[in-house]
Structure formats: C-alpha cells, structure tokens
C-alpha cells in the first residue's frame, strides 16, 4: 500500500496554495529569458492559455519558482541572481517586500509536510533551507548539501528527494534531514523538477536531454516517459490529471495526458512575450467565497492517485474530521484520521478534490489532491 500513498500532512499543504471550492484557475509562468540576462518576467494566463499578460516585469533576478501564500494574499518568487525570495501582492504582482535574503541562489521552493517552506540553493553550501510562512529562517534542514539543486519532492514515508542539475543525481534525505545517499545516480541529464506518482515511481525532468524519465520506488530506471522537450523544468497538474510542463526551448507550456501522450501547447509559443518558461504554477480561484483555507500542510500522500496514506496528524486538533470536497464545493466524504491510516478514493470520479481539517491552533488547513484512475 505504501507505493500508492501520499502523506496526509502533505494534503493539507496543497490546499494553502489551492483555495477550496475553486472552479477555475490561472496559470503563472516564470521566465528565465536569457538566463543570467533579462528582461525576466512572471506571466499569467487563463486556464486554457488565453489572455496572456506580463504579470511582473521588475524587481526580478533570474526568477526560478513561484509559491502562493493565500492567507496573506502573497506570491513568493525565488531569484537566483541576487539570493532573494521576494514578496508580491498575489492579485496585482506589486512588490511588497522581501521574504528572505542571503540565500545561495534560491531555485525550487515547496511547502513541506510540516507546513514550512523548503528552499533549494544552487550555490552556497547547497543545503536545503527551511522557513516559517512569515519568512523566519529556521536553519538548514539537510545535514549535507546538494550542489546545483533544482528539484524536490517527498515520498509517502516523508523522505525528501533533491535533484542536482550538474551532478546528474537525485539524493535522498530522511524525514529529519539525514543524508541517505544517492537515490538515482545514472540515466540523468540535467535533472530539474521531480515528482512522485501514486505507485511510488519518481518522475524526473531532464533539461539536458529533453525528457521526463520514470524510475521505480527503488530508483531503478524504467523508461523515457516523455521526450522532445529540451529545457523542460516547470510542472503542475490539471484537475483531470493532465500534466503541464514548461519547455524552455519551445517558449510554451506543453500539456500531456497522464500516460505521457502529447495533447497540445497550452498557449502559442512566445505568447505575451514569454521566452523560456522555467516554473509553471496553477492558482485556483475561490469563486464561491463560502470557505477560506488558511494554511497548507501535507495530510496524505501521494498528491495524484486513488489510494492515499494518512500521516502527520500531529498538527490536527483532537477529534478533527477530514472533509473531502469536489471542485464544485460539494462535500463528498469525511472521516476521522484515527479510524484509518488510508483513504480509498477509488469510488470518486477522476478530478481535483480538496481535503480540509482543523489544526490544533484553530486554523483551517487543507490540501489539493488529484484523483486519477
């Protein structure tokens, strides 16, 4: 069952970035332009690639990733060139300050199973840094560094995996940051983004050879899943499980079915002026305003699948009930985490669902999951 699970504490993490009851979403794309030479930008498109606009055009330094903190109406942008994570108004893109500075070339950012922000470093000591949502630095999380790190994800047991672009490996760390060695050390060419599938397979974007490769839960190479996508990096997922990939060499976001079949370009290459997409982030709209999600933490693993593993419930209020809503805001299921360590969603229609729960401090938290058969 472990290979078909996603930590429950991680499920709550995703809802912070994906407001509950959303029926529509926007696509945000960071543009690496000519790498260490601008002009850089953050672009915004409709869910079908329409109405492209340059959302942020200044105060950037080779942007790498985007994270939304919905509670604060804040967008975070990591900037490799100047070692900063900048804060922006999520609605307007206007710079509102600095979230963190003094980072050795920040690249990928992601909310972890504990509700904290994890940040990779391209330079410096290469250790994974950890921050509270208000920007308070909590120190280095990993015991050792990963040079040119640019992709991260967690498995169902809470182990952290980090890719090294120039080192051509993926390293594994325990839930407390101990170095567990190289998980993958061959068949890689400039690995960037990584993500786990429901069966425990690890998918790795290869910037250098233009592929997404599939490795099993032991790190053994299985296949080239997608090819012909040089400079691939950004990734996010549609409600039906389709995969959105930022492809720098083609100046667009390409859409693939869950089995790796090409569907379409989300938008015409170069639309709105984008040059080299290197992050793709969906932000769902709260169209009903019935409920507000205040915090994101991981509740279940994996994020995509039909069988999920419940874990990390220590942050929940005593007796908390996990409630599952569909994309239209209808309650479709509820259960007590104390009653089961797994959630079987095989009876639900494929699509996006949101799990919410009350935390020990009284806040409402949640996470987006994609049910895929």
Any overview of this molecule?
The chain has one helix at residues 8-17; strands spanning 6-7, 24-31, 41-46, 53-56, 63-69, 74-79, 84-89, 95-100, 106-111, 117-121, 129-131, 137-140, 149-154, 160-164, 169-173, 179-184, 191-196, 202-206, 211-215, 221-226, 232-237, 243-247, 252-256, 262-265, 277-285, 295-296, 299-301, 304-305, 307-310, 322-326, 331-335, 342-344, 351-358, 364-371. It is mainly beta and 373 residues long. Strands 26, 28, 30, 31, 33 and 34 form a six-stranded mixed β-sheet that branches. A four-stranded antiparallel β-sheet has the order 1-27-29-32. Strand 17 and strand 18 (202-206) form a beta hairpin. The longest helix has 10 residues, at 8-17.
Give me some keywords for this one.
four-stranded antiparallel beta sheet, six-stranded mixed beta sheet, mainly beta, 373 residues
What's the helix and strand layout?
Layout: E1 6-7, H1 8-17, E2 24-31, E3 41-46, E4 53-56, E5 63-69, E6 74-79, E7 84-89, E8 95-100, E9 106-111, E10 117-121, E11 129-131, E12 137-140, E13 149-154, E14 160-164, E15 169-173, E16 179-184, E17 191-196, E18 202-206, E19 211-215, E20 221-226, E21 232-237, E22 243-247, E23 252-256, E24 262-265, E25 277-285, E26 295-296, E27 299-301, E28 304-305, E29 307-310, E30 322-326, E31 331-335, E32 342-344, E33 351-358, E34 364-371
Parallel strand pairs: 26-34, 28-34
Antiparallel strand pairs: 1-27, 2-3, 2-25, 3-4, 5-6, 6-7, 7-8, 9-10, 10-11, 11-12, 13-14, 14-15, 15-16, 17-18, 18-19, 19-20, 21-22, 22-23, 23-24, 27-29, 29-32, 30-31, 30-33, 33-34
């Amino acid at each position: 069952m472990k290979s078909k699970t996603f930590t429950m504490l991680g499920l709550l993490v995703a809802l912070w970035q994906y407001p509950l009851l959303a029926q529509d979403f926007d696509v945000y794309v960071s543009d690496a332009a000519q790498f260490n030479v601008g002009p850089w930008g953050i672009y915004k498109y409709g869910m079908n690639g329409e109405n492209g606009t340059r959302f942020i055009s200044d105060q950037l330094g080779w942007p790498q990733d985007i994270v939304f903190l919905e509670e604060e109406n804040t967008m975070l942008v990591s900037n490799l060139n100047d070692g900063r994570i900048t804060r922006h108004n999520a609605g307007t893109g206007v710079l509102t300050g600095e979230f963190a500075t003094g980072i050795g070339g920040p690249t990928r950012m992601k909310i972890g199973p504990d509700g904290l922000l994890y940040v990779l470093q391209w330079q410096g000591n290469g250790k994974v840094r950890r921050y509270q949502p208000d920007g308070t630095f909590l120190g280095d999380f990993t015991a050792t560094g990963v040079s040119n790190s640019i992709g991260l994800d967690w498995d169902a047991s809470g182990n952290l995996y980090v890719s090294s672009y120039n080192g051509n490996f993926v390293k594994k760390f325990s839930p407390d940051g101990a170095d567990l060695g190289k998980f993958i050390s061959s068949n890689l060419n400039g690995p960037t983004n990584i993500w786990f599938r429901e069966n425990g397979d690890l998918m790795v974007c290869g910037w250098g050879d233009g592929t997404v490769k599939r490795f099993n839960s032991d790190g053994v190479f299985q296949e080239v899943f997608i090819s012909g996508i040089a400079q691939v990096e950004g990734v996010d997922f549609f409600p039906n499980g389709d995969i959105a990939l930022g492809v720098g060499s083609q100046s667009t976001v390409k859409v693939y079915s869950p089995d790796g079949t090409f569907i379409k370009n989300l938008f015409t290459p170069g639309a709105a002026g984008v040059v080299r997409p290197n992050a793709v982030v969906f932000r769902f709209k709260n169209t009903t305003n019935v409920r507000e999600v205040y915090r994101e933490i991981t509740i279940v693993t994996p994020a995509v699948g039909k069988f999920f593993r419940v874990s990390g419930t220590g942050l929940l209020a005593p007796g908390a009930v996990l409630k599952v809503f569909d994309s239209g805001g209808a309650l479709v299921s509820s259960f007590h985490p104390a009653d089961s360590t797994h959630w079987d969603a095989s009876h639900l229609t494929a699509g996006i669902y949101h799990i919410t729960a009350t935390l020990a401090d009284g806040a409402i938290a949640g996470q987006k999951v994609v049910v895929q058969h």
